[in-house]
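Supplementary Methods, section 5.1.

A reviewer requested that the exact input to the structure prediction be made available. We therefore reproduce it here, unchanged from the version used in the analyses.
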Amino acid sequence: MLEYCLSCDYEEALELKREPVIITVRGEAIEATEEFYQCPACGEKFTSSYGHDALEEAYREYRSRHQLVQPEEIRHWREHYGLTLTELSLMLEWDEATLNRFEQGALQETSEDKWLKFIMSPQNLLYLIISKPETLSAEKRKQLITQLSTNRIVVETLQRFYSLLRENLSDFSKPLMETKPA
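The structure derived from this sequence is encoded token-by-token as follows.
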């Protein structure tokens, strides 16, 4: 690759080099690969914005070790249901920029990851769509409710939920304690 070294004015074809590097992510040492070009004349190292991102690699490994949702999983799931960043951020009650950062590779906190996993479950998405009708247009809400209601897992979960609800509500209709005046 032809590059220009600002330190010594060297201009020749440079070879891409790779070296292992340790990156600390939330107190945890993670090995990643650093890619860089090195000037053979002065030894100056520099990176290309088109190259490999060692920090992204370390974040991906950290997410993997801690079973956190990866950025492409969030984006793919959101797009699968035809949700915009704005719509999903309203459902989660997050700033749209926060959700966008997670889709672009920023590392989410464990609490944020729990919310992402919660909403990614079809029955929970259905619950949020029904409980927060103002977050979607009527047409999109209807389309998603129809789509999610045909999901076998959602239907079975809702049937179990309503069955448990009926059982427990019948207990509430009985007086808890007969009280007798003293």
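The longest helix spans residues 152-173. These observations are discussed further in the main text.
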